[in-house]
Design brief:
Elements (H helix, E strand, L loop, with lengths): L1 E6 L3 H16 L3 E3 L7 E6 L4 H17 L4 E6 H5 L2 H4 L5 E2 L38 E5 L1 E2 L10 H5 L3 E2 L2 H9 L7 E5 L7 E2 L2 E2 L1 H9 L4 E4 L9 H8 L7 E3 L7 H7 L5 H14 L4 E8 L6 H14 L3 E6 L7 H5 L5 H25 L2 E10 L2 E5 L5 E4 L8 E10 L2 E6 L1
Parallel strand pairs: 1-2, 1-3, 3-4, 4-5, 6-9, 9-12, 13-14, 14-15, 18-20
Antiparallel strand pairs: 7-8, 10-11, 16-17, 16-19, 17-18, 19-20
Helix pairs in contact: 11-13
Length: about 400
Amino acid sequence: MKISVLTLGCKVNKYESDSIVFELNKRGYESTDKLEFADAYIINTCAVTNEAEKKSRQMIERARKFNPNAKIYVMGCASQNRPEQFSDRNVEAVIGTANKMQIVDLIDNKKDFSFDIPNVYEDNFFSDQKLSRAFIKIQDGCNNFCTYCIIPYIRGRSRSRELSSIVDEVSKLPENVKEVVLVGIDVADYKVGNEKALGTLLKRLDVFGKRLRLSSMEDNLIDEKFMQELSSLKNFCPHFHLSLQTGCDEVLKKMNRKYTTAEFENSVNLIRKYFPLAGITTDVIVGFPTETEENFVSTSNFIKKIGFSQLHIFPYSKRDGTASAKLFKDLPGDVKACRAKKLEEIGKQLKKEFISKNKTGKVLIEERNGDYFEGYTENYIKCYIKDKCEVGEVVSVEITGAYKDGALAKRI
């Protein structure tokens, strides 16, 4: 029996899906993460925006085009949020965000499940890492309750994986894995007991000699102590994805974000004190319901002032069940689209400026496409290299200029 596990959304979902593929293979199934002909499909859904939920529903029909008779199982954030949008689509089972690994036990049992979100970390994921970059999940859930976000309601409260479990998984990674990316819903809230311990975890992982990278995080962890911990590591990649969301204090307050623009700027300055060429990327929501044109101009100016290396721009998506959906009237779609386009142009210029500041780097080669070998520097510049390389090796390069979504580089 062949089973295809299809993933929408974040790196946490991808890690969980990879673990399911690994478990299916252990049990004798032929499994894949590709959208192709299969006897059954497991769809790991996303609910971060309305569009993400729509794509999750559409994935059912895309799978049926390959095999109209296939059994389809649905799990994840979108099904936790509104299970009825899937249960009436002739699927075998619908589960939520809890006990995802149990989906493997449901393959031959047509049954709907409704699981309560756990209050402790479910440590039953372990994927078979074959690529040069490995994602390792360290945390789940979120306590922030930003007014626009549905995730705390469908992923539950923040909970951390045992440090020893993470160290054990990383210690068993094959030699071809050269980089570890730590992922979670709120990585900055990783704790041992009641104390934040991301720095401690990174120190424990540094001994394995693999590049260490953090996924998206909140800026509340950035202080002198944490930066000193990072600067003492041999293998840390100086790339910080700090979620800004808006560069206007008035809108930040309405979003229930826990910082001001001044505090965010202080965090960035502290990062650059220790890592002058750090890649600092961010998420920005445009068209939050209370965002005026003046607020948007403030955000644009703040983004230029910070000088991010890359922007990820999202038009505001109204999510039923969130505070902002109850309190505020949505802005017209054309207003959001116009503002997003303006920020995209700013983002392109900032990216070029950041690339121009970098003369050299070390690139982990991840794949070959046509004439170019491709990979990322430690500070997250995608490089295109024509010189002979091997997938999985780390090469020193000279960066020669912007190209496509990154930079041209040559081996040195």
